[in-house]
Amino acid sequence: MLNERKFGRLPLSFSLAERDRRYAKVRAMMTERGFDALIVPCNTGHNEAYQADVRYLTQVGGFANEAALFFPAQGLSTCWVRADSQPAEWWLAMQDWVSDVRGSNCAWSDNFAASIRERGLERASIGVVGIGGTPRSPDGLMLYGTLSRLQQWFPQARLADATEAMVQLRQNKSEEEIAALERATEIAEKSVLAAAASAKPGISEHEVYSEIVGCMVRNGGELPTLVLWGAGSSPSCMSRVPPVRPLAIGDVIISEIEAKCVGYIAQVRRPIFVGKPLAEYAELHNVAVSASMRNLPALCNGKSNRGKCSSSGRASAVRIEVRFSPGAIPSRLLRPVSDAWASSMTNRSSFRFDR
């Protein structure tokens, strides 16, 4: 295609069938709640997690791209993207879910107002994603200025919260979404192995950190993402900023690494030892893997949360007789992932991954 030759293409994308499945679910929810349209605001906070609903309905996002969406109960939706350096034409070429992509100067209230007026919805019932809070953002996701202007400009419209409604319908994952999660897991595992390969005495912590990020991007992962990091002879905390400090024999690297694939996140936590690990650490690793493997049978379709808790209780009953030297790392920070858990991409033709 001409656009592909001009701009290239995204490394990962969902099918039109997946789009239609999601749109049907969302519009069924809108009918049930009496919404004539949805407003889905721009918010790239928390490593873009706060913009999940825009991504869910458009495929537009990743690498902190700013976007907002007006999604009517009938007809085509409009995606507004920040276009001062990256034109709307770029996103038209990169995805095939939304055909009406427009540039925005980040005046999101003006953009939403234009969409409302174009469709004659000045007195309509409009669901607003982000009025209500989420576990990581109890104050909500939408800017006060955007909401207050819309309330002022459209006093006869009903602007109601649709935050929890969208959260609920996104919880059950499709085959394509599961494939994305599996791919994210694979990227995260590869990133840990890349860090382990580069973690040698004399190499700075921030250089090892860069191997994690580089590995993610090379394998189709995206930024921003979460990488918590801590290193030293007995690290007791992690930070988001990798320091410039040379590693030494006996250092332990603890981390919390999230890889993101088309917005879907997988997290791994595996310690890395510079040199041979102490016997206490090796024993604790074995206990952690054993407890985790005992939990696996409970993590399957049809099991209730109560079943999972029961399994966790049995796993936690594994007796640990490890004596720690003063200042040893707390067990809560050591959650290694067994090599047996490494995921590979399953053969799903509708989910496209281009190396």
Blueprint of the fold:
Elements lengths: L1 H6 L4 E2 L2 H18 L3 E4 L11 H7 L8 E6 L5 E5 L5 H7 L6 E4 L3 H11 L6 E4 L15 H10 L4 E4 L1 H8 L4 H24 L6 H14 L8 E6 L19 E10 L2 E5 L3 E2 L5 H17 L9 H12 L35 E2 L2
Parallel strand pairs: 2-6, 4-5, 6-7
Antiparallel strand pairs: 1-12, 2-3, 3-4, 8-9, 9-10, 9-11
Helix pairs in contact: 5-6, 8-9, 10-11
Describe this structure as you would to a colleague.
By secondary structure, this protein is α/β, with parallel strands linked by helices. It folds into 2 domains: 169 residues, 3-Layer(aba) Sandwich (Creatine Amidinohydrolase, Chain A, domain 1); 136 residues, Creatine Amidinohydrolase (Alpha-Beta Complex). It contains 11 helices and 12 strands. Strand 4, helix 4 and strand 5 form a beta-alpha-beta unit. Helix 5 packs parallel to helix 6, helix 8 packs antiparallel against helix 9 and helix 10 packs antiparallel against helix 11. The longest helix has 24 residues. The C terminus is likely disordered.
Gist of the model:
This protein has helices at 2-7, 16-33, 52-58, 88-94, 108-118, 144-153, 163-170, 175-198, 205-218, 279-295, 305-316, and strands at 12-13, 37-40, 67-72, 78-82, 101-104, 125-128, 158-161, 227-232, 252-261, 264-268, 272-273, 352-353. The protein is α/β, with parallel strands linked by helices and 355 residues long. The protein is built from 11 helices and 12 strands.
